[in-house]
Amino acid sequence: MQVDAIPSNATARETAIAALKERFGVRLSTGEAIRRQHGTDESYHPTVAPDAVFFAESTDEVSEAVKICAANKWPVIPFGVGTSLEGGVAALRGGLCIDVSGMNKVLEVNAEDLDVRVQAGVTRKQLNEHLRDTGLFFPIDPGADATIGGMCATRASGTNAVRYGTMRDNVLSLTVVMADGRIVKTARRAKKSAAGYDLTRLFVGSEGTLGVITEVQLKVYGIPEAMSAAVCQFPDLESAVNTCILTIQTGVPVARVELLDDAQMGACISHSKLEGLEAKPTLFFEFHGTSAGVVEQAETVQGIAQEMGGTDFKWATKPEDRTQLWEARHNAYYAALAQRPGSKGWPTDVCVPISRLAECIVETKKDLEETGLFAPLVGHVGDGNFHLVYVIDPNDADELRRAKEHADRMVLRALSMDGTCTGEHGVGYGKMEFLAAELPEAIPVMRAVKQALDPDNIMNPGKLFRMN
Amino acid sequence: MQVDAIPSNATARETAIAALKERFGVRLSTGEAIRRQHGTDESYHPTVAPDAVFFAESTDEVSEAVKICAANKWPVIPFGVGTSLEGGVAALRGGLCIDVSGMNKVLEVNAEDLDVRVQAGVTRKQLNEHLRDTGLFFPIDPGADATIGGMCATRASGTNAVRYGTMRDNVLSLTVVMADGRIVKTARRAKKSAAGYDLTRLFVGSEGTLGVITEVQLKVYGIPEAMSAAVCQFPDLESAVNTCILTIQTGVPVARVELLDDAQMGACISHSKLEGLEAKPTLFFEFHGTSAGVVEQAETVQGIAQEMGGTDFKWATKPEDRTQLWEARHNAYYAALAQRPGSKGWPTDVCVPISRLAECIVETKKDLEETGLFAPLVGHVGDGNFHLVYVIDPNDADELRRAKEHADRMVLRALSMDGTCTGEHGVGYGKMEFLAAELPEAIPVMRAVKQALDPDNIMNPGKLFRMN
Question: Which of the residues B85, B445, B447 would you substitute to probe the A interface, choosing the one with the greatest number of A C-beta atoms within 10 Å?
Fold first, then answer.
């Protein structure tokens, strides 16, 4: 796989590293293993290591480090825990990786206001662990135990987004270190505001290209009185997808509705030892609400599913059963890889208006059959969002080519249906050409904003769109 | 009241008007009455008339007009129906007002996807009228029958925001004419996306300073199975506000919860002929959901209210009763003015974290008593947002001064509680100094974005923040 990687300027690199070493000592590392790890994410994209890694401990330190980089026009790549899926952390122009995973303090819990303030390196599981005794929880769940900063940077979402929204909807305010080292707070803590440009939303999804997110004020939610999960299997993909579509259109406030196709269910059954289920298209549901409300939601959805030919709901009401079910869902990726030892996963996602979802999925699967590839499908289908994971032999160039060609066709199909090239993985450097195809007139506007805020193009360069 | 207004360059004005007249004929007006009307909004801010008004009929026409203005570096001010509240339409540097009220077509209703596409001049009531037979509705309701374009521009919200969010949350995509006349679509129609910068959210709330919004793709919702409204009166403001706070913290998905203080209730009772109610602090509730869900929500909230000393709920379940109740709420402004013939209203709003709301309101009311002014209070208190309307004699300079001083103290109080200087009215030119106080480090970032997208500062100049 080709990568458009260019080493950084040698003088800039030496000067910046010397200054950073002097200031931060052993927390500035140029060791090869550490650099390599910090140029690697969970995608199929090749590793591109940064020249050095700085383990930051505060916003002020990030600011100091960025100022040194800015003075040398030397790139800066923010890093959480490396779970990005489109090469977001690859140091395409060399430079300094700023690892914020040590900035992992929960700074405030404002239980009365249903918000918290965290450092960017706090992971979503760590936050929920911290909140455990407060009756509150943070619902956004992209599967990986990503950092909150990374989730902001890629506008992450996941299984709960159909009910609770994405990171776009759940960030109240950000503290960001800009390309010149200035520290900017984007908003106050009020739940809504009409005061000026929405800089919070400008940084959410900017993938490190406009600044380094160091602190996040987040919405949290009261743990619902009742939560229950159910599994329903279907004779074919269309009836499963149509059950989901009708559920959304009926206005049932379902908390999660996840689709797994036959290939993915087969993998999950054997990997996660799920009992009493078959390798058939399946929906995993979760309902949140009052006890009566949850029963009412579930009855409505069970009725829709039955009309579509679905099985009776198999319930997981006890917390441990719910956990097992969602762990199986979260391990879908590893379950898929386990079907083919030695393989590598190539995950990709698209999102379409829900009226086109069944058509998009059916055509994609039909096209897949013709390629002979193994690529299980999972989807946050309540949002019109689905994923394929191509399970490929990384040394087989022809398999890679066929996967690439199929993925390209899938994205173009989604775009032809007024969808987006990525519902939640982000663009990184893996989907730049598709972002350009998706929003051709918008790219020059994005580029102008980038140039205004990062005139020397040092913030995560080579990502999202070309600068010329 | 002083206004920082500067006439536009005479040569630019003459050249641009001649070109616009040649192209658009009678739809370019320089008549004084029309100009005056287009420099006037519903605020207390003095009218500043534009040099000319163009009645646009399409995105392409807006683009052509902006190109003529851009060629002459002559200002452009977008105009819907003139319901802004912070002088948003005042032509502070002269120039062309582009009136989009004639662009009032609903272009698409995608019922299956719960979205619509409208021209910017469609008003919210017109949209709901259009949707009447579809089982869908658009919930955002700022009171005034504003245009959807104007509501986007000021990030409007209103009574339903506590359940359905603000314009920030309900716009899927915008078509915008940029400062050089280019037409940009900001996003596709998918419900979520991680594809590039969130330009949609950048334009929502930009108050015409970055471009002219001409088309909007909006979320709509299925009309709930059951809707019912209730009124509850309280012995004092604190118990009313605390009822609201506890309702939100309990997670009841209330659709509306509106506070009216004793002064406002007195005005509404006499203006809207409300029977069986007293001039006491009052909450108006509305519940949406299934029949059982609405009953359950109402019982929970009634329980909370009783503990706080509230009266039994007075119900409005029939559509006509609900309509009467919400009309009384929407007419609160006119009811307040009717208390003092010949007066003018000066509405203002702030928003604070909900844990500080009771304190903020109580201190504001206490401070008000000392001024001797009449200023009823209403609030979208579920969001921490409240309004005062100073009912003043426009010819009494001392009253104006006292109102201004009180309003300033209220905003500074909200800021000291980590709140915002405006929850939903916007900044216009009325709150520029407070935006600067609220987000001091963010202003240079906003200014850089503005300079990048409107280098000649022709888009609604003189609003939001100073350019130097």
Answer: B445
